[in-house]
Design brief:
Layout: E1 6-10, H1 17-28, E2 31-34, H2 36-48, H3 56-65, E3 68-71, E4 82-85, E5 88-89, H4 97-107, H5 110-124, E6 129-133, H6 136-140, E7 146-151, H7 154-167, H8 174-190, E8 203-206, H9 212-226
Parallel strand pairs: 1-6, 1-7, 2-6, 7-8
Antiparallel strand pairs: 3-4, 4-5
Helix pairs in contact: 2-4, 3-5, 4-8, 7-8
Bound molecules: cytidine-5'-diphosphate.
């Protein structure tokens, strides 16, 4: 096996996971899979059906029943993939502020995690995959041959998300994004079920002052080291 065939990339919001994950998957001709969209899809569907975010029982059932498809991009509008929920294209809806707000509480529900983790693990075990999220190295694919945990200061991450949103024409205030990101970091890292943390065998890279190209250089070195 010339390369690690399962690569796990974890870390908090806007640490660079999706950019690095997609570049790496493209280079290696692996599947790129962003697990965050599944939690976002459940959150979006709950809002759509007027299920209160606090209703753990109803949201748990929703997570078990919802059909979420992550497909190759169907439109060339800057998306990394197309996400369909019950057949409806919701790719950009998943980035709305109300989904950002609800997604961390929804992701803390153990039954939601159990339902989505099982699907993610099935996809990951097929191999040749770069999977990104919060708990890939710890829970979803603990057997991944390469685990990278990308981190950066919350200010740097909020700034990146601010610029991303502006580029997409979405109005946003830096202070609001920073506050929302702090809240999400806190819920994600303090929940009981699969909290955000690096796996013991993960390599932690701080991307605060590291441009994408430099992160890629470091990831390439890690891949070389694992290439027998
Ligand atoms: O894109 P961004 O980093 O802002 O978020 P995301 O990766 O789409 O994840 C959204 C939320 O889903 C996170 O804040 C977590 O609460 C949750 N999540 C999770 O709990 N476990 C994962 N494997 C992926 C996401």
């Amino acid at each position: 096996m010339p390369y690690p065939h399962m690569i796990a990339i974890d870390g908090p919001a806007a640490a660079g996971k999706s950019t690095i994950g997609e570049l790496l998957a493209e280079e290696l001709d692996y599947l790129y899979f962003d697990t965050g969209v599944m939690y976002r899809a459940v959150t979006w569907a709950a809002l759509q059906r007027s299920i209160p975010i606090e209703d753990e029982a109803a949201i748990s059932i929703l997570a078990q029943e919802l059909r979420i498809d992550v497909l190759q991009p169907t439109v060339q509008d800057g998306r990394q993939y197309t996400v369909c929920v019950d057949g409806q294209d919701v790719t950009w809806d998943l980035r709305r502020p109300e989904v950002d707000y609800g997604v961390s509480p929804v992701s803390a529900y153990p039954a939601v995690r159990a339902a989505l983790t099982a699907q993610q693990r099935r996809i990951g075990l097929q191999g040749r995959v770069v999977m990104v999220g919060r708990d890939i190295g710890t829970v979803v694919l603990p057997e991944a041959q390469l685990k990278v945990y990308l981190d950066a200061t919350v200010e740097a991450r909020a700034r990146r998300r601010y610029l991303e949103n502006r580029q997409r024409g979405q109005k946003a205030r830096y202070a609001d994004i920073l506050r929302a990101m702090r809240r999400r970091d806190q819920i994600d890292s303090q929940r009981d079920a699969a909290p955000l943390r690096p796996a013991e065998d993960a390599v932690v890279l701080d991307t605060t002052d590291l441009p994408i190209e430099q992160v890629m250089v470091q990831v390439h070195e890690l891949i070389q080291q694992r290439d027998p």
